[in-house]
Write a structure and sequence with these properties.
Immunoglobulin-like; Jelly Rolls; 32 strands; 2 helices; 446 residues; 16-stranded mixed β-sheet
Length: 446
């Protein structure tokens, strides 16, 4: 009966703290508060919001100042419960970016088996998307107000607002202040693990504090549920800790699927050899996958992987516009898809300038099936930009040559040429190489 009572009180706390005011907690700042007004810190290769607005769980007041939440010189994250000017403040951070399927492993320093009965440490994945369908995968440490010395301190929970969820509790008896806790979120199951010490995997059975798995479909989130990583340290009901002591917990590191690649740019007709895709390097990614689709809503096809933040698509059909996405990869999993960008390979155009006689210049090229017409440009400057002023003529496909009578044989007067192929599909121009004719005056004696 004691277990059932604790379970009920826990679920009530969850429902009160995270079901009613969850949109304030997990989806970012409350309505009317812009991200620009939120303190952002960098930790474990990620950007994190530091919470300052009041509300659940608890509800609590939350402190975002550097004396409540900070990253120390060794790169460890500190969260606290502080007593400031007569009020108790909890602390919470959450990733700016969404996370994806994969393992999320937290390396914790702190006596989590000796917390005051009403103190809660949460390491969790959380979502509250627009339809108010709350999803949670939680590792928590709390007695939930129980003063029984034999009560369990550890809790694994999968929770859905529309389905009460699964839960497992366990005793935590740390050998020292260091422990590792993991949430391995997969499509059809979620595996939880807690270990003595810091480990990427259990070195032997003696290091295992607890392990648990749930396969209940209704409480396993989908990637599109927009889960973020959260860490918080708070007080049940917002009441002062029973021992009256401030609390500090240190999270030394986090292993998790990488952040989503940002600033994906696909070349738009910049090269006739390939479409070059670039993006900002992701600190938490070891490599990247590049995907392509025929349209923005088309089926994504994997083009390849790379360890650098650039990829050349040499298989693109000239003049066809494709949509590109990038994901990040590491040992814990794969990021969600980046924002897409469209790119196009230019139509290959190689133009030669030949003298048909002493005065006439002939331009020649190979007709390209992707081209519907050709614009012939000429200028006296070698590196001119094609424009209406430089346009000499327009030819319909399958033209492959054009003559300029009298352009040659005039000393000191040179001409430069460029041919643009207009794509049948895109209607956009693809530039050829620049070529020209050069006339030099010969002065006797020089």
């Amino acid at each position: 009966m004691r277990y059932l009572n604790i379970l009920l009180s826990t679920l009530l706390a969850l429902a009160w703290g995270w079901g009613v005011v969850a949109d304030v907690q997990a989806s970012g700042p409350p309505p009317g508060r812009a991200d620009d007004d939120v303190r952002i810190i960098q930790w474990a290769g990620r950007a994190w919001r530091v919470r300052a607005w009041p509300g659940g769980p608890g509800p609590n007041d939350w402190c975002d100042t550097p004396d409540c939440v900070w990253v120390d010189g060794s790169g460890a994250l500190h969260l606290t419960i502080r007593h400031i000017n007569g009020k108790w403040y909890a602390s919470e951070v959450s990733t700016v970016d969404f996370t994806n399927l994969g393992e999320h492993r937290f390396y914790v320093e702190g006596a989590i088996d000796q917390l005051a009965p009403d103190v809660v440490l949460g390491l969790f994945l959380y979502s509250n998307i627009q339809d108010d369908d709350v999803e949670e995968l939680d590792v928590e440490f709390s007695l939930w107000g129980d003063t029984d010395p034999d009560a369990d301190e550890g809790w694994y929970t999968t929770w859905s607002q529309n389905d009460i969820g699964d839960q497992y509790s366990f005793d935590v008896a740390l050998e020292d202040a260091y422990s590792t806790h993991a949430i391995d979120w997969q499509t059809n199951e979620v595996d939880f693990e807690s270990l003595q010490g810091f480990h990427a995997q259990a070195p032997d059975p003696s290091a295992i504090i607890a392990q648990w798995q749930t396969t209940t479909p209704a409480v396993i989130p989908a990637p599109e549920d927009e889960m973020r990583i959260h860490i918080n340290l708070w007080l049940m009901n917002g009441w002062p800790p029973t021992d009256g002591q401030e609390v500090e917990i240190v999270i030394h590191d986090l292993d998790a699927p990488p952040e989503i690649p940002k600033n994906v740019q696909a070349g738009d007709g910049l090269s006739s050899a390939q479409v070059q895709i670039t993006w900002d390097a992701v600190a938490t990614a070891d490599s990247y996958k590049v995907f392509r689709a025929e349209t923005p809503t088309g089926t994504k096809t994997l083009l390849g992987t790379t360890v650098s933040a650039t990829f050349d698509d040499g298989t693109a059909t000239p003049d066809h516009t494709y949509t590109y996405w990038v994901t990040g990869l590491n040992d814990q999993g794969e990021s969600l898809f980046s924002v897409s960008d469209e790119g196009r390979r230019a139509i290959p155009m190689q133009v030669s300038a030949l003298l048909s006689n002493a005065t006439d210049v002939d331009l020649q090229w190979t007709h390209q099936d992707a081209a519907c017409d050709y614009s012939i440009h000429r200028d006296a400057a070698p590196y001119f930009l094609p424009s209406s002023e430089t346009l000499a003529d327009t030819l319909s496909a399958p033209a492959s040559s054009y003559s300029f009578p009298g352009d040659a044989g005039q000393p000191g007067q040179n001409h430069y040429y460029l041919v643009q192929a207009t794509g049948c599909e895109s209607g956009l121009p693809s530039d050829s190489n620049r070529t020209g004719e050069f006339d030099f005056a010969l002065t006797p004696g020089n």
